[in-house]
Amino acid sequence: MVIKEPIISVTEAVFVMAKLRVKLGLRNASDSEVVTIAINVFNGVKNNERFRDSYVDMPAFETAINEFKHAIAIRPNAGKLGTADKNEKRRKVENFIRKMAAYVDSEHNDNPETLLSTGFSAKNPSHAPGPIPKAIILTVNNGITGELVLIVQAIKNAKSYQAQSATVSRDGVQGLWQDHSPFTNSRSMRVNGLTSGTTYAFQVRGIGTMGPGDWSDPVSHMCS
């Protein structure tokens, strides 16, 4: 009996691999925005039946929020010491938020409704790396003797590029594809060790964190 593995499209693979994650939003947040995030999360988790086993100390979290709110209120009349105290209390609140985010990420099981019930927002899934599109060879030029230089349209999210070459006889018969070492610069892919006077066909594909894209259409050029 032959067991066939299920076939999924590249789009489906992106959805599967793009894990749902909590969005913190702390980096550029104002003090009042941090307070709002903290209160939303505290209230969202405190009596949430889906998150009864939180390892975050909720009473300490609530105290940190109240102390931070008080520090914000008195800072205008408290000078540099008041600012330093306010900043320290903000760090404590942010640490609680980060601990809570780690806990929620470990428990929401990629369920958006469950994540959002905690008061957190979810990261935009469009930020996940997408599939690598089909590569396009812009041109092939002669380099030094026995060398051809490929210029390929840069591909977003591609970490490297894989190239293959094959000889093409005078009557148009193409040989077997031969692999070359990966390239990182799409604008200067130098293929060496070729035979002068021989025509070569090339195809290229981008390689990303999710795997390779489709091969480009072949482009042929005679090596000088």
Task: Describe the structure concisely for a colleague.
The protein is an alpha+beta fold. 33% of the residues lie in helices and 20% in strands. Helix 2 packs antiparallel against helix 3 (58-74).
Question: What this model shows, in words?
Answer:
The protein is α+β, with helices and mostly antiparallel strands and 224 residues long. The protein has 2 domains: 13-127, no CATH class; 137-222, Immunoglobulin-like. Helix content is 33%, strand content 20%. The protein contains 5 helices and 10 strands. The chain has helices at 10-17, 31-46, 58-74, 79-107, 112-116; strands spanning 22-23, 121-122, 137-142, 148-152, 160-168, 178-179, 189-191, 199-208, 211-212, 219-222. The strands form 3 sheets. Strands 5, 6, 8, 9 and 10 form a 5-stranded antiparallel sheet that branches. Strand 3 (137-142) and strand 4 form a beta hairpin. It is elongated and about 85 Å long. Residues 1-17 have low confidence and may be disordered.
Order of helices and strands: HEHHHHEEEEEEEEE
For the largest beta-sheet, the strand count, sense and barrel status come to: 5 strands, antiparallel
**Global structural class:** alpha+beta
Oligomer: single chain
Secondary structure: number of strands? 10
